Amino acid sequence: MTQLTVSLATAATLALAMFTPVLANAAPVKNVVLVHGAFADGAGWRGVYDELTKRGYHVQIVQNPLTSLEDDVASTTRLLDQQDGPTILVGHSWGGTVITEAGVHPKVAGLVFVSALSPDAGETTAQQYEGFAPTPDFVIEIGADGFGFVKPAMFKQGFAHDVSDEQAAFMRDSQVPINMSSFGTKLKNAAWRSKPSWAVIATEDKAFDQAMLVHMAERMKAKITKVSGSHALFITRAKEIADTIDEAAKTTAAM
After folding, report:
1. Is 226 helix (H, G, I), strand (E, B) or coil?
2. Rounded Cα gap, residues 195 and 215, in angstroms
3. Whole-Å CA distances, 174 to 121, 131, 136, 169, 205
4. What are the backbone angles phi and psi of residue 223, rounded to the nearest 5°?
5. 204 Cβ contact partners less than 8 Å away, ≥ 6 residues apart
6. What is the pLDDT of residues 78-106, one digit of tens each?
7. 157, 214 in Cβ contact below 8 A?
8. Under a CB-based contact definition with an 8 Å cutoff, are residues 211 and 201 in contact?
């Protein structure tokens, strides 16, 4: 009986010794990189930034030039290179296309799509709209140089109907145009095929057909969270987005 007790104790000690290094090597994910979409800049992430930094995350925000997919991916990769460990990469709207391409970076542990596009490798962003309902409240005016703006007279109703008139006016007058040819660029990579993904979808988003957003998220096998909000949910639903990023960080750290 004594011999059996010693053997069990010894076995338990050996098992613990073998298991402990696995726990010690499970690095926490404490870095987050946020990527904005078209017609906006990184300042819109301020609420999400504040939520995450209060929770102890190191957060950096990409400033996309919106001149081409290649240029936006380069801007994102530049910040990913600066991270000191595993990182959650987050994209809003057009930023979803950017993180889909840039997310193959070895430091990216997981992806969060915020009412965002997510083409597959070999697809263009424009193809994602095919077969889905038009969005009459979200009108893009394209200049002779090929850059597009959201039509000023329709900016609030199409982009940000749930912010104040004053904030909507500032967003309208500070919007960053995108080179519309970017939507015709084929992606080389689809990071969501190899990285765990989450999707936050605004149920009152007028920039995309709801069915389109759900289709893209389901194709990625992303964990979906729906929130009431406009296309500007990256501003108006900062806490819910931060909660999803927090969940992504904790989940990937445990993988």
Report:
1. strand
2. 18
3. 32, 32, 22, 9, 20
4. -80, 120
5. 161, 162, 228, 229, 230
6. 999 999 999 999 999 999 999 999 999 99
7. no
8. no
Query: What are phi and psi for residue 236, nearest 5 degrees?
Result: -85, -20
Q: pTM above 0.85? A: yes
Residues in the chain: 255
Nearest-angstrom CA–CA distance, 30 and 19: 23
Q: Identify any residues that bridge with 226 across adjacent strands, giving them in sequence order.
A: 201
CB 177 within 8 A of CB 148: yes
In angstroms, rounded to a whole number, what is the distance separating the alpha carbons of residues 83 and 25?
Answer: 18
Q: Which of 21-25, 92-96, 144-148, 157-161 has the lowest mean pLDDT?
A: 21-25
CB 162, CB 204: distance < 8 Å: yes
- Is beta strand 147-150 parallel, antiparallel or unpaired with respect to 140-142? antiparallel
Q: How many CB atoms are located within 10 Å of the residue 58 CB?
A: 15
Per-residue model confidence as pLDDT tens digits over 112-138: 999 999 999 999 999 999 999 999 999
Domains parsed from the chain with CATH numbers: 29-134+186-253 (3.40.50.1820)
Q: What is the pLDDT of residues 170-214, one digit of tens each?
A: 999 999 999 999 999 999 999 999 999 999 999 999 999 999 999
Residue 130 is which amino acid? E
Nearest to 52 by CA among 34, 74, 35, 40: 34
